[in-house]
UniProtKB/TrEMBL annotation:
<dbReference type="GO" id="GO:0035091">
    <property type="term" value="F:phosphatidylinositol binding"/>
</dbReference>
<feature type="domain" description="SH3">
    <location>
        <begin position="226"/>
        <end position="285"/>
    </location>
</feature>
<dbReference type="GO" id="GO:0045730">
    <property type="term" value="P:respiratory burst"/>
</dbReference>
<dbReference type="InterPro" id="IPR001683">
    <property type="entry name" value="PX_dom"/>
</dbReference>
<dbReference type="InterPro" id="IPR035756">
    <property type="entry name" value="NCF1_SH3_1"/>
</dbReference>
<dbReference type="InterPro" id="IPR051228">
    <property type="entry name" value="NADPH_Oxidase/PX-Domain"/>
</dbReference>
<dbReference type="InterPro" id="IPR036028">
    <property type="entry name" value="SH3-like_dom_sf"/>
</dbReference>
<keyword id="KW-0728">SH3 domain</keyword>
<dbReference type="Pfam" id="PF08944">
    <property type="entry name" value="p47_phox_C"/>
</dbReference>
<feature type="domain" description="PX">
    <location>
        <begin position="4"/>
        <end position="125"/>
    </location>
</feature>
<protein>
    <submittedName>
        <fullName>Neutrophil cytosol factor 1</fullName>
    </submittedName>
</protein>
<dbReference type="InterPro" id="IPR032136">
    <property type="entry name" value="NCF1_PBR/AIR"/>
</dbReference>
<dbReference type="InterPro" id="IPR001655">
    <property type="entry name" value="P47PHOX"/>
</dbReference>
<dbReference type="GO" id="GO:0005737">
    <property type="term" value="C:cytoplasm"/>
</dbReference>
<dbReference type="InterPro" id="IPR001452">
    <property type="entry name" value="SH3_domain"/>
</dbReference>
<dbReference type="Pfam" id="PF00787">
    <property type="entry name" value="PX"/>
</dbReference>
<dbReference type="InterPro" id="IPR036871">
    <property type="entry name" value="PX_dom_sf"/>
</dbReference>
Length: 389
């Protein structure tokens, strides 16, 4: 799984669910290597099975060979029947277990077994429910009860945002809010749906309905990138507003500005416009079941469509018009083309390597002196001697 690893796991509390039958799930906030924070739900029976498999994978570190070598933390087995009290009392043990787990040597804490178990699953985003059955009950862990461990690890501080307008939920996984409500952000999804908590309530809320407390601008929002990132359309969308773009599934586009409300500015040829980020997938990236599940949720509303929005800030949030996006995008494309043309038209430099010429005035071999008649008569054959007589 490459350089992926978990920085921190925080137990937030548990839920009592009634579908398909009554059971309890623990809520964990997982902080990953890239500082993203994801909410996952796990039954204790799942956690214990994960723990047993981890011990089998690392028998030395689990103390199976020698108890002195044990570094994998203990975890008590589940009871025959887990009720509200046992689920609640086990929270302290799980908090310490998660802290110990992420601080184990990398070969354990970053192994595929650990990473896969805490990755977001489709049922984390949309838990199975039945409209005829009672809605889940949430029990959050008091902040002071987590202080002893989180003081050591560095707690995950949830950001507080304010609701600028009333929002009525459209599904059980969402949460209704009223103007002025102060909500804690558990997870900021690129889709524009943020998972929030308000007192003992939790659910998905459109980011467009929320504003930061210290000012109208989003400090985490990126600047435009006119070079663009290649994406592929995974779901078609027909523009409703004039500044949006209509695209079909399979279209290749470039994303030039990623906005936190889930409506990204995209470019196709020289045309720009807003498009729902949840309907896009990065080029070359494998299909993600969790993202597919989120796409079925529907696009979040845009801030420009919210009526009677009431902000506590005197200044409004700065917004770049599509005219500026198009103009700057056109300039970038033109400069890129000019650079390409200049490289193609630039004459190539040919370096002629001349081989060294052979010297014409090579030294001539010396001509031996002609032998004397006496020498020939003394040393040569009779045939040669007769020729000079």
């Amino acid at each position: 799984m490459g350089d992926m690893y978990i920085r921190h796991i925080e137990l937030l509390g548990f839920e009592k669910r009634f579908f398909p039958s009554q059971h309890y799930v623990y809520m964990f906030l997982v902080k990953w290597h890239d500082l993203t924070e994801k909410l996952v739900y796990r039954k204790f029976t799942e956690i214990y099975e994960f723990h047993k498999a981890l011990k089998e994978m690392f028998p030395i570190e689990s103390g199976d060979i020698s108890i002195e070598n044990r570094i994998i933390p203990h975890l008590p087995a589940p009871k025959w029947f887990d009720g509200h009290r046992s689920t609640q009392n086990r929270q302290g043990t799980l908090t310490e277990y998660c802290y110990s787990l992420v601080n184990l040597p990398c070969k354990i804490s970053r192994c595929p077994h650990v990473l896969t178990f805490f990755k977001v699953r489709p049922d984390d985003l949309n838990p199975p429910t039945d409209s005829l059955i009672k809605t889940p009950e949430t029990f959050l862990l008091p902040k002071d009860s987590k202080q002893n461990v989180t003081d050591i690890t560095g707690p995950i501080i949830l950001q507080t945002y304010r609701a600028i307008s009333d929002y009525e939920k459209n599904s059980k996984s969402e949460m209704a809010i009223k103007t002025g409500d102060l909500v804690d952000i558990v997870e900021k999804s690129e889709s524009g749906w943020w998972f929030c908590q308000l007192k003992n309530k939790r659910g998905w809320v459109p980011a467009a309905y929320l504003e930061p407390m210290d000012g109208p601008e989003e400090s985490e929002e990126q600047d435009p990138n006119y070079a663009g990132e290649l994406y592929v359309v995974r779901k078609s969308y027909t523009a409703i507003e004039e500044d949006e773009m209509s695209l079909k599934e399979g279209d290749a586009i470039e994303v030039i500005h990623k906005l936190l409300d889930g409506w990204w500015v995209v470019r196709k040829d020289e045309t720009t416009g807003y498009y729902p980020s949840m309907y896009l997938q990065k080029s070359g990236e494998e299909n993600n079941p969790a993202k597919n599940q989120m796409r079925n949720k529907g696009v979040p509303p845009r801030r420009s469509t919210i009526r009677n929005a009431k902000s506590i800030h005197n200044q409004s949030r700065k917004q770049i018009s599509q005219e500026i996006y198009r103009r700057n995008s056109k300039k970038y494309i033109q400069s890129r083309q000019n650079l390409k043309d200049s490289l193609l038209n630039k004459p190539s430099t040919i370096i002629e390597i001349k081989e060294p010429r052979e010297s014409k005035s090579k030294a001539q071999p010396a001509i031996p002196p002609r032998p004397s008649k006496a020498l020939i008569l003394n040393r040569c054959t009779e045939s040669t001697k007769n020729k000079i007589n």
